[in-house]
Design brief:
Pfam family, one (chain B): BPD_transp_1
Transmembrane segments (chain B): 12-30, 68-92, 104-127, 147-166, 187-209, 243-265
Main location (chain B): membrane
Shape of chain B: globular
Distance between the termini of chain A: 31 Å
Helix content of chain B: over 70%
Membrane topology (chain B): Multi-pass membrane protein
Family (chain B): Belongs to the binding-protein-dependent transport system permease family.
Largest sheet of chain B: none
Radius of gyration of chain A: 26 Å
Radius of gyration of chain B: 23 Å
Mean pLDDT of chain B: 86
Largest sheet of chain A: none
Oligomer: heterodimer
Number of helices of chain A: 13
Largest interface: A-B, 113 and 109 residues
Structural class of chain A: mainly alpha
Strand content of chain B: under 5%
Number of strands of chain A: 0
Chain lengths: 329, 279
Amino acid sequence: MTVTAEPAVGKEAPPGATGPAPRRRTGRVRRIALPYLLLLPALLLELLVHLVPMVIGIVMSFKELTQFYIRDWGSAPWAGFDNYSLSVDFDAPIGKALLHSFFVTCAFTVLSVGLCWLLGTTAAVYMQENFRGRGFLRAVFLVPYALPVYAAVITWAFMFQRDNGLVNHVLHDQLGLTDSPSFWLIGDNSFVALLVVSVWKGWPFAFLIVMAGLQNIPKELYEAASIDGAGMLQQLRRITLPSLRPVNQVLVLVLFLWTFNDFNTPYVLFGKAAPEAADLISIHIYQSSFVTWNFGTGSAMSVLLLLFLLVVTGVYLVLTSRGRRAADV
Amino acid sequence: MAAPRSFVWSRRIFLTLLTGFVLLPVYVMLSSSLKPLQDVSGEFRWLPSGLTIRPYIDIWSTVPLAKYFVNSLIVAGAATVLSVAIAIFAAYGVSRYRFRGKRLFTVTVLSTQMFPGILFLLPLFLIYVNIGNATGIALFGSRLGLILTYLTFSLPFSIWMLIGYFESVPRDLDEAAMVDGNGPLGALFRVVVPAAVPGIVAVAVYAFMTAWGEVLFASVMTNDTTRTLAVGLQGYATQNDVYWNQVMAASLVVSVPVVAGFLLLQRYLVAGLTAGAVK
């Protein structure tokens, strides 16, 4: 892509622009203060929407915060580590449900990220070279990414209806694969339904990023390889996939975090209480806080989730960057 | 070198299946939105028994869709403008200056990407209620509160992406502008911003899309007058019946502006994502 920057370079200085020479001292002070001034709005907002809420969230996780204290949460009694021990007591119902939800989320995330990556990469590799209709297909593939989540997921919810949905119509009425119309939004099938929707919605992002990554691979590499007699599969294995490594490192991490934290998809698909088989962690925490009104426990679960994500991300970054360094040698 | 026939065929099959998968919900949305109610309440039909535009008329009166539309527009628009404006200054500061705390700032911004939204929901709710009690500024339930909340999603991403983009603008250009007598802000707006327009557009599109599609905060932090489309669309399901044809018509109506805008600007978005993510 080319970025031209002709405008304004040669134009005369605006009136009142600061000249470098006359007041050197204030100039220096200004130069030191300037980056901070530029960051100030962002800092203030980050403080308001991220840091302060996070600190409050952590404080709340040590409090006995039920609906009685919500108006004046500062006066809620301290609970020490009670909320945490309640969350991780896997023999009691609350801890057991949380652990179950955690495993469901892990399985869901691994499958969804894997499938998104596979579909996105395959499509991007197939579309690496130009052919008729390529631009059109690319636009089509971006539709799931552009559609507002709720509009898309509501449509899927309609398709998964037991009595008037497309899925059962095709599987049961037209293909005769099932004895009776199945439930998709309750029971064990709900995991499959959630996975399908999540992959449908998520794979175009992988496609976009991998396609961008493919553009950075020099054409000469492929030419040299084909002169050496390497077939398409060999080129894929020896050139394409290794070159995509740094792109994949970021892509998989971002997909992982988004999928693991996804709230919108299960919430629109199932409502406030997800079926057990598809009880993703963020909706589980939402339910623990807002439906059963136990905000202290909900906060403790959020903090545990955050710690988990921090550890996984840290380990992942260390492992992948070491792998990358080894590959470079 | 021409691709082998087997490759062309496998490509055709794969891409056709994928297109079908992608467009299936779009087809269901479109065809169901043109069906009479008895068509969508019974067994699914691929083709409508009769075409009707009735759902497109009824959607506006079954729920106050226009009001939700305006709310979404105000909230998403304001969140976009704010996050882009703030991100431009911040990204310029980070990409052009060395200063104490720079690394801390970028790491903090980046790591907020991994925080689950649920972590902020309740604390923000409490902060808004407290600010409201203390100052009388109603943040909870108001559009302003929702706008600030949506910055949680778009601001870190915008800053992160714009840093990458501004760094791809050669430093000589804005230094030349400063030698010509512009101040740093003059250089930013006369040189760096014009050169980074694709990135800025990409960030704006992304910010707008996230705000337009957000569900969690919209469902907790809005009331009857400030409700956005994300929550309002659930109004077509009554206790007795779901007006699926109207749900589909409304989904289509709220999707068209973003999808059209996105497809028009996708070139920029792809370029912007590349600069941000591939680095």
